Amino acid sequence: MEYEWDDSKAASNLCHHGITFELIVDFAWDKAIIIEDERKDYGESRWVAYGPIGERLYCLVFTVRVDRIRVISLRKANSREVKRYG
Fold it and tell me: In terms of CB atoms within 10 Å, which of 12, 24, 38, 86 comes out highest?
């Protein structure tokens, strides 16, 4: 799977969450729970995936572009999300 992201968004994510988008290559898609983000109209379909990177659960917000995943946000899942993930 190929990934892309906006460099300024990646820098903002690193500043706010302390997480680099490069970690996405280790995201365990086969263990992920994926839901559509319908909180508001973004002008495109956005998805939220909860899945592990190593031993830790992460929350990934992304959109699908033709042949790749465009990363919007990546952060550690909070305690509520970890409980829901099971």
Answer: 24
Residue with tokens 């190593």: 54
CB 5 within 8 A of CB 12: no
23, with CB counted inside 10 A (0-12, 13-18, 19+), is: middle
pTM: 0.93
CATH superfamily of 3-85: Ribonuclease toxin, BrnT, of type II toxin-antitoxin system (3.10.450.530)
38-58 pLDDT, tens digit per residue, is 999 999 999 999 999 999 999
Radius of gyration for the alpha carbons in the chain, expressed in angstroms and rounded: 12
